Amino acid sequence: MNRFKRAVRSLTAEDEELDAEHLQKQAVKAGAMTVATCGDRVPVTVLGTIRAMTIRPRAGVPALEAELYDGSGTVTLVWLGRRTIAGLGPGRQLRATGRITTSEGRRLIYNPRYEMTAVDG
Questions:
Q1: Distance between CA atoms of 92 and 74, rounded to whole angstroms?
Q2: How many domains does the chain contain in total?
Q3: Separation of alpha carbons 15 and 108, rounded Å
Q4: H helices of the chain, where?
Q5: What is the CATH number of the domain that holds 51?
Q6: Domain assignment of residue 46, given as a range
């Protein structure tokens, strides 16, 4: 019966909802935490897809910001002093490690260690 329920769900669920579930499963399978379960001020590893990138100055220094979505929520990755990172752009899958914090209602990781990963179909 479980297989039947999954089949019905895959036919009736929205594409965005199915994509979100797939991203969350991928993150857990890769040993990462979901953004929704990450606590503040603790080291975390997250895995997701870059949705958007912007350059936003912080205290007069350029800062590259990337919005990482993992199906459960988003975290903004901030690299201070950077304008670009070769190969990094919207749609790219990324694993990031750092200390998560919350500022002005946004979850942030400053200067995360990162690894670009292959998209798992």
A1: 14
A2: 1
A3: 27
A4: 2-12, 15-29
A5: 2.40.50.140
A6: 2-117
> Taking the chain, what is the end-to-end CA distance rounded to the nearest angstrom?
25
In DSSP terms, 54 is beta-bridged to 65
Tokens describing residue 8: 């019905």
DSSP string, 22-56: HHHHHHHHTTPBPGGGPPTTSEEEEEEEEEEEEE-
Residue 6 is encoded by which pair of tokens?
Answer: 């999954």
Pull the structure tokens for residue 25: 């499963």
One-letter amino acid for residue 95 of the chain: R
Show pLDDT as tens, one digit a residue, over the chain (121 residues).
576 665 555 555 566 676 777 676 776 677 778 888 888 999 999 999 999 999 998 888 899 999 999 988 999 999 999 999 999 999 999 999 999 999 888 999 999 999 998 765 5
Query: At 76, which amino acid appears?
Result: T
